[in-house]
Design goal:
Blueprint lengths: L1 H28 L108 E7 L1 H4 L6 H12 L4 E3 L23 E2 L5 H11 L7 E5 L2 H5 L4 H18 L4 E5 L9 H20 L6 E4 L7 H4 L8 H17 L11
Parallel strand pairs: 1-2, 1-3, 1-4, 4-5, 5-6
Helix pairs in contact: 3-9, 4-6, 6-7
């Protein structure tokens, strides 16, 4: 009985052990399931905006402003899709899956480029070459003393002025009762030179005033190149006397042509820088206001400053009368004044 009781006890113990092992297996099967599935990634962000239209090209023609810049690029794409929902946790299981990331926003479109600037306007036509002008024909009177006439060894300013006027294409005629130089005639480079003038070697202003009405019976000038007064200074006449006679000469010229244009010159300096130059400078100081005093809109009197820029050391052949360099300087100043004051009506001596 003791043995049976012992086996019974062993059997009971063994049964208990088997029962415990079966419970452990059951508990092992009840462990929580695996982690839930990750949520799906969010949808891709909106596509990037379209690029803006290119600006219009600037119109052709002179210096046009470039076209307007292109329109602003397209709006950014909408945000990415919603985050995916995490998987549900298994019973007693691991952590929920991570949510999917949102899609990136679309990039903004680039702005269109500005239009190119318009081409510059075409260049104007080339300046016309020499030839006849549309200005009226002029009768020009060179009126004065030895500076106007010159001597047999020098051409005078008249020759160089004539060449300048011819080259520029002007229609004109030198007038006067003389056509020679003092003590003879030089060899002109161009034998067609118009030699007519009214330059009298050694004459004073009052002598010219006395003879002028008779000379004007032979021609009617449209424009006068007036250089007088130097010999008055040599003879010691006061400037006021000389300018009074110059004013009377202008009156006589206007009786012949009430629209005559007078270009009145200042005196040239001498090589000697002494009393005579002082007298000449004083006369010039009286000529300047005289021009303004006697000029009129119908018959202008224009000052031509021949003193300024003239060097008696290098521009004369005897300390008084212009050499070729001096003649060309005088001609250039006459030319500038003539071109700036060409009358609108001419041809007086042709009527």
């Amino acid at each position: 009985m003791k043995i049976k009781a012992s086996w019974l006890a062993i059997a009971i113990v063994a049964g208990a052990l088997l029962s415990c092992s079966s419970d452990e297996d059951e508990n092992s099967d009840a462990t929580g399931g695996g982690a839930g599935d990750s949520g799906e990634a969010g949808g891709t962000g909106g596509s990037s905006g379209s690029a803006g239209n290119t600006g219009k090209t600037g119109g052709s023609g002179g210096n046009s402003t470039g076209g307007t810049s292109g329109s602003t690029g397209g709006t950014s794409g909408t945000g990415g899709g919603d985050s995916g929902n995490g998987g549900s946790a298994g019973v007693g299981g691991g952590s929920a899956g991570s949510a999917g990331s949102a899609g990136s926003a679309g990039s903004a479109g680039s702005a269109g480029s500005a239009g190119s600037a318009g081409s510059a306007g075409s260049t104007g036509g080339n300046a016309g070459s020499g030839g006849e002008t549309s200005l009226p024909r002029l009768c020009i009177l060179p009126l004065g003393d030895s500076i106007t006439q010159s001597n047999r060894d020098h051409l005078s300013y008249r020759y160089w002025l004539w060449e300048d006027l011819i080259e520029a294409g002007y229609d004109f005629d030198f007038v006067g009762t003389l056509n020679d130089h003092h003590e003879g005639v030089p060899d002109y480079p161009n034998p067609d030179f118009d030699r007519d003038h009214e330059g009298h070697w050694g004459w004073l202003t009052d002598q010219v005033l006395e003879e002028l009405p008779g000379w004007l019976n032979n021609y009617t000038p449209d424009l006068v190149l007036l250089y007088l007064g130097g010999n008055d200074c040599f003879w010691g006449q006061p400037p006021s006397s000389t300018t009074d006679e110059l004013s009377q000469i202008v009156d006589v010229l206007r009786e012949s042509n009430d629209h005559v244009v007078i270009l009145m010159s200042t005196m040239l300096p001498l090589r000697e820088d002494g009393e005579m130059n002082r007298r000449l400078a004083e006369l010039n100081e009286h000529i300047v206001p005289l021009v303004d005093e006697i000029s009129t809109p119908e018959s202008p009197v224009i000052l031509v400053d021949q003193w300024d820029g003239f060097n008696a050391e290098t521009d004369t052949f005897d300390g008084t009368h212009p050499n070729e360099a001096g003649e060309k300087k005088m001609a250039a100043k006459w030319m500038t004044a003539i071109e700036a004051n060409w009358p609108s009506v001419g041809g007086a001596c042709d009527n």
